[in-house]
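Structure tokens please, single chain.
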Amino acid sequence: MSASGKSLDEVIGYRFNNSRLLERALTHRSWIADQSDASRGDNEQLEFLGDSILGFVVSEALFQAHPRAREGQLSQWKAQLVCSVHLHGCAVQLGLGDFLHLGRGEDRNGGRNRRTLLANTMEAIVAAIFLDGGLAPSKAFIERHILAGLDSAEKNEAYSLLDHKGILQERAQARALPTPRYAVISTAGPEHAKVFTVEAKVGSQFSSRGQGTSKKIASQEAARNLIAELDSNGWKIPVEEAVYESVGD
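Here you go.
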């Protein structure tokens, strides 16, 4: 039960025929390690399947909602909607942490609020619903709890304010690419109205710049521009270490 007294079936709006699928989706590997009988299994395989289902449903929704958008823009919106930052926020809204099965150590160390853990559980629930009832209910769950408000201009504007640096780092890590690096290229303007130019770089070949009234804003803009450039290139980068210094937040 959640803090509100509701079951997870009530919270997510879907009642499972096979409750064992839901239990597995909520089970972190740390819980398995603490059990003498681990026959239930953890949620990592469900997470793998859920990631693919989520990507398909989000791609279809964006295609339908923005018929005139270019592929690069659609890819950027999709990356923002399926990234751990956004999924974590969705999980928090559901109160998902209350339902997790965690090992004692993971629980003590704040696992119920951990971003990656909660985001992975959202993907596992998508897969569990799919296996239990098919694509239609899993799509309904995604639309209700992950894509809610997609058609509103306000929501689309909010997507542009997401953590582009985090998204760039996640996507680079997923492809075993070098960690993105950031460097301040220039600072212009009077003390009370400075404009910073920051360059973001992954590997040795691809970089983009962004400007803003703070290093943080300029870094986010540089990351956003680099994501768009890499999307257009298919992320074909030689794997080698970048040497740029990090820019603080």
